[in-house]
Amino acid sequence: MPWRGPRVPKEFPTLGHVALQWIRDTLPIPDGPKMGQPFQLYPEQQKHVLRKYRLDPNAPGDIGNDAFQYGGSMVVRGQKWGKDPILSALDLFHAFGPCDFAGWDANGEPVGRPHPSPWVAVAALNDDQANNTWLPLKAMVEASELADYPGVDVTLDKIRLPCGNPVERLTTTAVGRLGGRFTKVSLTENGLMTDTVKTGASGGQRSPLTFAQTLIRSTDGMNGMWTAATNTWDPTERSHAQRVYEAKDPHILIDARIARTRVELDDDEALQREIIYLYGDSLRERGGHVSSQRITRSVRDKSKLETERRRFFLSEILSGEQVLCPTEKWAAFSRPSVLAPGEAVALGFDGSRARDKTTLTATRISDGRVFHLRTFSPKCMCEKPDHPPAACTDLRVDRKKVDEAVTNAFDGYKVWYLYGDPYKWGEYMSLWAARWPGKVVEVPTNVQSRMDAILDLFLVARDNDTFTHSGDADLTQHVADAVIAKGTRKATKPRVGADGQVIEHYLKVVKRLEGVFIDAAISMLLSYAARAQAIEDGALQDKPPPAPEGISEDADHALGASHAEFGDAVDWNNIPL
To answer: Which domain of life is it from (predicted)?
Structure first.
């Protein structure tokens, strides 16, 4: 017979009641002052379980797990809420309990049955995170009747089940075991599972994101289930949790308690209200285990980065403080617009021969708005390029095209200065200096004191919300991939940063990870600094920039190129990209 129908408004059929009863009757609390007592989830956690195992009310009894509305679920809560214990309990329910849908009883109630051959993976980025779920799981088995089941064998990192399959702990280095026929997978802190860290014995080809996606595909193939639990994430990292949260797949249950507002950390009442909202039934005053006073102290602990404290304990989705510009700030700074021909600008140039990209950026003198002009990628320059990309022996940026772009910028705008990194481009920097005397300034970006000062100009504008940009996608991506790191040298005069921390070392801008590009971001910083110099030299006083002298044919011929070779382009905005 089908489901009996609702007895109260909004009631739905679920195998969650079976799961909660099994957990309460079978599993002991693994640690703490109530160790050994029956493990009963808090009301908020119970609601998650009831929703997780929601059933189609019209499901026929022989349809099996296709009756479940959700194939996976994700819990997003603050640090210490109790995410790992719920993962442990649900993993054991799928290993030993009646987790599969077996139809309806004579009263129209759902019935479950144990899976005939369960295989459970407790997965995390590393051993420490995996242990957060694994150790309480193992302790619950050892302290319960489950350890006495025939065929059960508990070892350090594996539990052999009666069917012969394991409950096992997996991390991203376990490349060889990802082909398991998993019927249940738990993902601890999938907010850290990104495509930015390459791991594994396969020579660095598997990322934590791929690790998570592979495990989930395995459960899908076995008509099983997966559960993830995480803090909020850094939106610049595009983690598995972020992707799941933003996808809004109707077959994945998202149980997320996200910050309602950004509270001031010194506002006692507002902070307490937000902690009560975020931690709910886990707080001691509501019968749980979490001390709101301890959470308050942790949130205010200035020895930790504020962004991390807000993510961990207040469930705010924030970029890390180490990024060049948080994504939410960068988006707020966007002012889609174009440069008009003849406008006064300062240019920034960051070049590479082959490994990175080469970018030219302009900052408008009048208001400091940044415009990405052009980014060049390395291309195959072989005489016969009809071969696979990996076989190219001459991969480099087309330098004549770059030279043409710089010339077009000088022809199309009133250029005060060009700040450029001479590394690998010294010859062209000399050529440009000869063409436009007094306007081209070499700025080696590996000189830490100089780059620290240039970076500081941008950071002041960023923190005072006076910075704007034209919204270019390439520049946006390069800025997102750029992070601020300490240099190797200590600054002559330590200073206090925007977060109140003393900065003793020079700061520099580096890549968030190998394989990304930040050339447009560096070019932006250079053009911004060039504008500052132009203003110091009177650019805002309607003083025209120094008139360029004639092109030096000697300089052109020294590079084997003629200026006439590049044509007479006069309007940058009409140059095809």
So the answer is: Bacteria
239 DSSP assignment: -
Does position 139 have pLDDT exceeding 80, yes or no?
yes
pLDDT tens digits, one per residue of 38-57: 999 999 999 999 999 999 99
Print burial letters for 111-140: b (CB count within 10 Å at least 16), e (below 16): ebebbeebbbbbbbbeeebbbbbbbbbbbb
| Mean predicted confidence (pLDDT) in 230-248 | 93
Encoded tokens for 182: 């998993």
Whether the pLDDT of residue 290 is over 60: the answer is yes
CA distance 422 to 372: 20
CB 355 within 8 A of CB 340: no
CB-based contact 42:82 (threshold 8 Å)? yes
Give the pTM. Answer: 0.66
pLDDT digits (tens, 9 = 90+) for 370-379: 999 999 988 7
SS3 526: helix
- Closest by CA to 450, choosing from 520, 517, 522, is 522
Beta carbons of 404 and 428 less than 8 angstroms apart: no
Q: Which two tokens stand for residue 234?
A: 């850094």
What 3-state class would DSSP assign to 472? coil
pLDDT at 543: 63
Q: How far is CA 365 from CA 374, 450, 535, in A?
A: 19, 21, 8
SS3 letters for 167-187? EEEECCCCHHHCCCCCCEEEE
CB-based contact 101:59 (threshold 8 Å)? yes
pLDDT tens digits for range 491-529: 777 666 665 555 666 888 988 766 789 999 999 999 999
Is residue 447 classed exposed, middle or buried when 0-12, 13-18 and 19+ CB atoms within 10 A define those classes?
Answer: middle
CB atoms within 10 A of CB 279: 27
Q: Which domains does the chain have, with CATH numbers?
A: 15-197+204-258 (3.40.50.300), 267-318 (no CATH), 327-537 (3.30.420.240)
Cα–Cα distance between 26 and 15 in angstroms, integer? 17
Alpha carbon distance 74, 190 (integer Å): 9
Give me the residues paired with residue 482 across strands.
511
Contacts of 148 (CB under 8 A, 6+ apart): none
- For residue 227, give the nearest of 85, 338, 370, 22 by alpha carbon: 85
Q: Which of 487, 471, 489 is nearest to 479 (CA)?
A: 471
Identify the helix (H) or strand (E) that includes residue 374.
strand 370-376
- Assigned token pair, 73: 């679920």
DSSP class of residue 67?
A: G
Question: Do 467 and 524 meet the contact criterion of CB atoms below 8 Å apart?
Answer: no
